[in-house]
Design goal:
The complex is a heterodimer of chains A (about 230) and B (about 375). With about 230 residues, chain A is an alpha/beta fold. Chain A starts with a strand and ends in a 6-residue tail after the last strand. Chain B folds into two domains: about 160 residues, no CATH class; about 180 residues, no CATH class. In chain B, helix 2 runs antiparallel to helix 8 and helix 8 runs parallel beside helix 11. The longest helix of chain B is centred in the N-terminal third of the chain and has 37 residues. The chains are: A alpha/beta (about 230), B alpha+beta (about 375). The interface between A and B is medium-sized, with 39 and 27 residues.
């Protein structure tokens, strides 16, 4: 398994007590597999994603990314793990205003200590894969919402991650564009062999997932694989 | 610097604005530094140019410290200093500010305020190594220009006619050009008033001072300070280094202090302005920083990027401001404006500007360390 969460519990301070966001959650995602996580707002979906992305340390339980256990890793090592083995597709595209579409991808090479210039061919290749080959030199304000989300997806794949974490990618898109984005993520998951977790509240897009896990009040239920 | 360079290009307006502020502050600091040095030169160059390393003043110095205007040393005092071990030479120096007139005083010659420096012929303090005696004078270029006098002319100083034997150097003292003459002539022009210090052992037999201060050249041995203090006590003098003696020129202390205070405020203002700009800029960039951190950028990489951006801005703005200051300084330095254009007056302030600006920027961009990458997920909490 490329992503494994075992018995993960996460709580937040809540007044005098603590709120349980994740309650003994276990999830294993193989390479090339797309697992959708659904649930109502506040159920713990994004907390699950944040723990998997190593952005929050759980109170208990273990997390392994591409075979690397993350407990006890220093912040610097966690950052290295994120840039080399984890791709994150944000809910909002979160593109940098000063960078073109290609540069949004090239910056991933730069933060990994590699030459952004040498990374440009790979960036163009990925932009072509998401259907934006002709828009490589456009800045975010020159792109539509769907195009920005595609750049967001391509950026997540720039460093060939083992794990792809996708956070509500269709929340700002209409149904047609949302479906296109989900289909794109499913296709890239197969092509790139990533272990993909897709967090969404929109059940209309679940057909593309290999299986659907449901989270409610911090508890995760993983039914039989779909399709 | 990948993102930093692109931010600089993308937010041209904002960076141009702060860049212009840096240019203007640097220009102001550069001009003020040149002016400060120029005014200081007009104030002290005659003293700093003396071939001596210590200056002895009469008396204990009082609460306000020694003063050129109050000091009057006796012959006995400078002879005592001359006999001290470690003292290679002790030369009396008379200093007085008065009016001089070109010609014999009966014609309508040019009148100028000058500082008359009286030295012993052959004593080595004046600009002419072999000295000059009697009623002869060596004019500094400023005095010659102000008086319209040249070699062979006569100038009248406080009613005493002096023959100009040479025009040499550009020494000035307390913003007046220097007229060098013999100690004997100086004593006739500005005889020191008041009785000699009884502690000099003369019992007042000298009847008055013979000069203003004693210029000392020592061997610079390790016991120089202790020996000087000992001799001061016995001779009734106060001895300070030549550099410290500049504080004994009243106008220099107040003038230089005010200008240095202004310069210091400008440095502080520039650091604060740059710090404020980068504080706002870093806060604005907070969401971008959170995204980059979530994507795996290390805090060190982000700090280097932000500091590099600040340095580009600082170095660029300071270089432009320094070039403008140098150009303006070159334009005015030949005029009546006292302006000194040297690496020390132009490059040194620029280096301080960059260093303090970088410090201000560093204090601001360190908030990058506290940006939580989790905020990039938006709905994680």
């Amino acid at each position: 398994m490329r992503l494994e969460l075992n018995d993960v519990t996460l709580t937040y301070p809540d007044g005098d007590g603590r709120l349980t966001a994740l309650d003994r959650v276990s999830l294993a995602v193989p390479g090339g597999g797309l697992t959708a996580v659904v649930g109502p707002s506040g159920s713990g979906k994004s907390s699950l994603l944040a723990v998997a992305a190593t952005l929050i340390r759980p109170d208990s339980g273990t997390v392994a990314v591409d075979g690397v256990r993350v407990e006890g890793l220093a912040p610097g090592r966690l950052a290295e793990l994120r840039r080399r083995r984890i791709g994150i597709v944000f809910q909002q595209p979160n593109l940098l205003a000063s960078l073109t579409a290609a540069e949004q991808l090239q910056v991933m090479a730069q933060i990994d200590g590699r030459s952004p210039r040498k990374a440009r061919p790979r960036a163009l290749e990925l932009l072509e894969a998401v259907g934006l080959a002709d828009l490589a030199d456009r800045r975010p304000h020159q792109l539509s919402g769907g195009q920005r989300q595609r750049v967001n997806i391509a950026r997540a794949l720039m460093n060939d991650p083992a794990v792809l974490l996708v956070d509500e990618p269709t929340s700002a898109l209409d149904h047609e564009r949302g479906s296109a984005v989900i289909d794109l993520i499913a296709r890239l998951t197969r092509e790139q062999g990533t272990a993909t977790v897709l967090v969404t509240h929109d059940r209309a897009h679940l057909g593309a997932a290999d299986r659907v896990a449901e989270v409610f009040d911090g508890r995760l239920r993983v039914p039989e694989p779909t399709g | 610097m990948f993102v930093a360079w692109r931010d600089l290009r993308f937010a041209k307006g904002r960076f141009a604005l702060i860049g212009a502020v840096i240019v203007l502050i640097t220009l102001l600091v550069g001009m003020l530094s040149g002016l400060t040095a120029g005014l200081a030169r007009e104030n002290v160059s005659a003293v700093t140019g003396l071939p001596a390393d210590m200056i002895a003043f009469s008396g204990s110095g009082g609460d306000g410290g020694p003063s050129f205007s109050d000091s009057a040393v006796t012959e006995r005092q400078w002879r005592r200093w001359a006999q001290e071990p470690g003292v290679e030479s002790a030369e009396p120096l008379g200093v007085a500010t008065t009016k001089a007139e070109a010609g014999d005083g009966n014609a309508d010659g040019a009148i100028a305020a000058v500082s008359v420096f009286g030295v012993r012929p052959g004593g080595g303090l004046g600009p002419v190594p072999d000295g000059f005696g009697g009623d002869s004078a060596v004019l500094s270029e400023g005095a010659a220009e102000d008086l319209g006098a040249a070699e062979g002319d006569t100038v009248t100083v406080a009613g005493r006619e002096l023959t100009v034997t040479e025009v040499r150097g550009d020494a000035s003292f307390s913003h007046t050009p220097v007229v060098w003459t013999s100690l004997e002539a100086w004593q006739g022009i500005a005889p020191p008033s008041g009785p000699a210090d009884p502690s000099d052992g003369s019992g007042g037999a000298d009847g008055g001072g013979t000069a203003t201060v004693i210029a000392l050249t020592t061997d610079g041995g390790p016991d120089t300070d202790a020996a000087a203090a000992d001799t001061d006590e016995r001779a009734g003098t106060t001895t300070v280094t030549k550099a410290d003696s500049l504080a004994a020129i009243g106008s220099y202390t107040s003038e230089n202090g005010s200008l240095q205070l202004m310069r210091g405020f400008l440095f502080a203002i520039s650091a604060l302005v740059i710090g404020a700009f980068f504080t706002v800029w870093t806060i604005q960039r907070g969401p971008d920083v959170a995204v980059l951190k979530a994507l795996g950028a290390s805090t060190g990489t982000l700090l280097r990027d932000a500091l590099g951006q600040a340095l580009v801005l600082l170095v660029g703005g300071t270089a432009a401001g320094t070039a403008a200051a140098a150009a303006l300084g070159a334009a005015v330095s030949g005029s009546d404006v006292p302006f000194v254009l040297t690496p020390g007056t132009v490059l040194a302030p620029a280096a301080v500007m960059v260093a303090l600006g970088a410090l201000g920027a560093a204090m601001s961009v360190r908030r990058i360390t506290s940006v939580d990458p989790l905020t990039a997920l938006g709905s994680a909490r």
